[in-house]
Design a protein that fits this description.
This protein is an alpha+beta fold. It has 4 domains: about 120 residues, Topoisomerase I, Chain A, domain 4, CATH 1.10.132; about 150 residues, no CATH class; about 120 residues; about 160 residues, no CATH class. The strands form 5 sheets. Strands 1, 2, 3, 4, 5, 6 and 7 form a 7-stranded antiparallel β-sheet that branches. The protein is globular, with a radius of gyration of 27 Å. The mean pLDDT is about 95. It binds adenosine-5'-triphosphate (ATP). GO terms for molecular function: [isocitrate dehydrogenase (NADP+)] kinase activity; AMP binding; ATP binding; phosphoprotein phosphatase activity; protein serine/threonine kinase activity. One of its GO terms (biological process) is glucose metabolic process. Its EC number is 2.7.11.5, 3.1.3.-.
């Protein structure tokens, strides 16, 4: 029932306390993100990674704080439905002039569902879709930064403008040679645009917050000329003397999609009006769901909320059925998908056959580790959901049987809300981007015939990228544990990404060993492992037989990545990480780096 009158003072107080809780959350989130600039300037790389990790926890802490306060001060959980209806209306009123109303609504949903018993809250009490618009929000405070700045260069002043764009961020460090770098950017732009005529509206718009991640800072903007818009990102790094350089110029949607990929750590950006940042970024990457843009900006709860809304809408407007995901079934995870929807759903099974020796808690902690770790473009991000309800009629019977058999504790089939529609309710599920499993990708090439040029280049790409993926993971202190092809997927951009986390370990926790010399002929001939193996022991020489059964694959692997079969490779990386070295991770190809231009200039 819609309340006719807002007559409960208590409802207002609850709404106000909730909004205070949200504002406190966003203020802390924002100042932690803004401090990334200082960490970048002082080359505090460990601090940057720690902050990236810790910021993920902020949201849940603030939700817990706010719900405790509401219980303590207002006995919020004992209030009537009428009061809660009014709380929501007051909250909408308080959100109208807020600069992050969409986040405030999500915060309201989190706190409300925590306080009210699940069966008690209905959609009337929470925001199932936005109530307050995020269009045209501006901060009228004269001291506030605008969301983006516009520059109007002429042909002859382009390099000076690029310099100005960078200087406007007022980074404290000196540049090695900003004029030179600006000239590189302009040359790269010329090469990209060719001889285009500059139209009256020619301009460069630059988001006013720098994007920080690991050891990099990124200027993000777009070039507008006539009806064309070209996305742009300039990575700024420290050189070995602590001076700054623009390392590359990234142009176009694809380069930006790789920079903002779901397989990387979230950015730190000082944003007054996050929805305006999202709109700007979406105009550059129209195919990237808003949910993933919010995730990339570190606003993961908003990402989760939007993903779920997109998913429900997709369900309403599609007719296909959920099915067991193509590929080799997991021993630990039961994976299913909806063909028309580009994500997979992963449920932890109730039991695991040997040699798997793990528990639900351990598996969850590995997924959590990946969430908090720098994913270096090589590990898919997952969203964790509990009690997700799907329409039963959209489920393939074979999939229901599979769930009944392997994950009965996670499955409920019932008409939970009594509306006559039977639902499949899954207690706990991870959702992540769907990729083509690498074993399937390779098999496609084998089926064409390994001598066919198209198949050959497909195998080559897969094997080289697979090795590169493992090497990036190693640099980030991750040992994948299970390196079989089926545990990696290939993305739309041809990047190989790892997605099977249950056996993941830190490189620094592993013991990389050579296989000992056989003691006698019997040992040598034995098909069994005759030497003692500790729980964290890894024998890289033994990877070959599992991975390299196919000749074409073997040849390519040995050409590019034979070092992965040598314990010394792993040991040397381990020592570097132990010595505190933080590796550079580039979300763009080496060929794009300006450094290469400098190198070629050296005789
Ligand atoms: N993101 C994804 N995109 C496409 N397919 C996927 C994805 N994640 C998993 N799969 C499919 O599901 C299968 C099982 O997934 P996963 O490897 O995560 O399970 P697991 O139980 O941990 O496996 P293992 O038995 O190797 O430990 C994969 O082999 C693959 O075929």
């Amino acid at each position: 029932m819609f309340p006719q009158r807002l007559d409960s003072g208590l409802a207002y107080d609850i709404a106000k306390a909730m909004m205070d809780g949200f504002n406190r959350h966003y203020q802390l989130f924002r100042s932690e993100s803004a401090r990334a600039k200082h960490r970048f300037e002082t080359a505090d790389w460990h601090g940057q990674q720690r902050a990236q990790r810790e910021r993920i926890e902020f949201y849940d802490l603030r939700v817990r704080e706010a719900s405790k306060r509401l219980e303590r001060e207002f006995k919020a959980g004992e209030q009537s439905m009428d009061v809660w209806q009014q709380v929501k209306l007051h909250y909408i009123g308080l959100s109208v002039n807020n600069h992050q109303p969409e986040l405030a609504e999500t915060f309201f949903n989190s706190v409300t569902t925590k306080i009210l018993h699940r069966s008690y809250f209905q959609n009337d009490f929470i925001f199932v879709r936005p109530a307050v618009s995020t269009e045209y929000i501006e901060n009228d405070d004269p001291s506030a930064k605008p969301t983006y700045r516009a520059y109007y260069p002429a042909l002859g002043t382009m390099a000076a403008t690029v310099g100005q764009m960078v200087n406007d961020f007022e980074l404290r460090n000196e540049f090695e040679d900003l004029e030179r770098d600006a000239a590189y950017v302009v040359a790269a732009l010329r090469a990209k645009l060719g001889d285009v005529k500059l139209r009256a509206n020619f301009q460069i718009q630059v988001l006013s917050g720098l994007f920080f991640r690991n050891k990099g800072a990124y200027l993000v903007g777009k070039i507008i000329n006539g009806f064309n818009e070209l996305p742009l990102a300039l990575p700024i790094l420290h050189n070995s003397d602590g001076k700054l350089v623009i390392d590359a110029a990234l142009f176009g949607e694809d380069d930006l999609l790789i920079l903002f990929s779901f397989a990387r750590a979230y950015f730190m950006v000082d944003m007054g009006i996050p929805s305006a940042f999202v709109q700007f970024l979406r105009s550059m990457m129209p195919r990237m769901p808003r949910a993933e843009i919010y995730n990339a900006l570190g606003l993961a709860k908003q990402g989760k909320t939007l993903f779920y809304r997109d998913f429900l809408q997709h369900l309403r407007h599609s007719t296909d059925k959920f099915r067991i995901a193509p590929g080799i079934k997991g021993m630990v995870m039961l994976v299913f998908d909806l063909p028309s929807f580009p994500y997979v759903f992963k449920v932890i099974k109730d039991f695991y056959p040997p040699p798997k020796d793990t528990t639900r808690e351990q598996i969850k902690s590995k997924y959590q580790l990946v969430k908090q770790h720098d994913r270096v473009g090589r590990m898919a991000d997952t969203q964790e959901y509990s009690s997700v309800a799907f329409p039963r009629m959209r489920f393939d019977d074979e999939l229901i049987e599979e769930l009944r058999k392997f994950a009965p504790s996670q499955l409920e089939i019932s008409d939970r809300d009594g509306d006559g529609n039977v639902e499949v309710i899954i207690k706990h599920v991870y959702i992540e981007r769907r990729m083509i499993p690498l074993n399937i990708y390779l098999q496609e090439a084998f089926d064409i015939g390994e001598t066919e040029p198209a198949a050959k280049s497909q195998i080559e790409r897969a094997v080289i990228e697979y090795g590169n993926a493992i090497k990036d993971l190693v640099a980030a202190n991750i040992f994948p544990g299970d390196m079989l092809w089926k545990n990696f997927g290939i993305t739309r951009h041809g990047k190989v990404v790892f997605y099977d986390y249950d056996e993941i370990e830190y490189i620094t926790d592993c013991k990389f060993r050579r296989v000992p010399q056989a003691r006698n002929e019997e040992d040598e001939m034995s098909g069994e492992i005759w030497y003692p193996v500790g729980p964290k022991d890894v024998f890289p020489e033994t990877f070959g037989p599992f991975l390299l059964g196919n000749n074409a694959v073997r040849e390519m692997f040995m050409k590019h990545h034979a070092d992965l079969l040598d314990a010394a490779f792993w040991q040397s990386h381990q020592s570097r990480i132990q010595a505190g070295h933080v590796y550079d991770v580039f979300p763009y190809e080496r060929e794009k780096r300006f450094m290469r231009l400098n190198e070629t200039a050296i005789p």
